[in-house]
Amino acid sequence: MLSKLIPEKKIENLGKKGIPYGISEEGSLVERASWRTFKPVTDYTKCIKCGMCWLHCPDAAYTVGKDGFPECDSKTCKGCLICVGVCPVKCIKAEQERGVAKK
Ligand code: SF4
Ligand code: SF4
Predict the structure, then answer these.
(1) Does the beta carbon of 94 sit less than 6 angstroms from any atom of ligand 1?
(2) pLDDT above 90 (res 55)
(3) pLDDT at 17
(4) pTM (global) more than 0.85
(5) What mean pLDDT do residues 39-62 have?
(6) Were 43 and a residue from 16, 38, 66, 91 both cysteine, which residue would form a disulfide, CB within 3.0 to 4.6 Å?
(7) Is the CB of 49 under 6 A from ligand 2?
(8) CA 44, 45, 47, 53: dihedral to nearest 10 degrees?
(9) 5 pLDDT band (50/70/90 cuts)?
(10) Is the pLDDT reported for residue 20 higher than 60?
């Protein structure tokens, strides 16, 4: 089904869980992290390993490590901060990326 919706040449650009990468006008891959202004930072001392961040991340940026804690791939995360909102114990904080001008 997916192959019928996406032109064949675009299939090469699918990342984890079939989520496509952005393609620049020059044809190169665009990392989502390049437009991120905030990033999620997890306090693992409070994490209860519920998996809600992993489940709700629209870009499949989280994987679950052998110890059961979620790990965020900084190259995949685009900084939407949905994971911050769904964490039941509020142990994920939004941290501003360096180099981003404050108002
Ligand atoms: S900020 Fe958004 S893209 Fe990044 S890990 Fe959280 S839910 Fe996923
Ligand atoms: S949603 Fe919060 S408590 Fe649950 S696994 Fe993610 S970081 Fe840990």
Answers:
(1) no
(2) yes
(3) 55
(4) no
(5) 96
(6) 91
(7) yes
(8) -20
(9) low
(10) no
Task: State if residue 57 touches ligand 2 by the CB under 6 angstroms criterion.
Answer: no
Closest ligand relative to 65 C-alpha = 2
Pocket flag, ligand 1, residue 70 (CB < 6 Å): no
Beta bridge partners of 1: none
- Cβ of 87 closer than 6 Å to ligand 2, yes or no, is yes
Residues 6+ apart with CB under 8 A from 38: 79, 81, 94, 95, 96, 97
The rounded Å distance from CA 64 to ligand 2 centre is 10
The mean pLDDT value of the chain amounts to: 81
Both tokens assigned to 22:
């952005």
Q: Which residue's entry shows tokens 């998996």?
A: 51
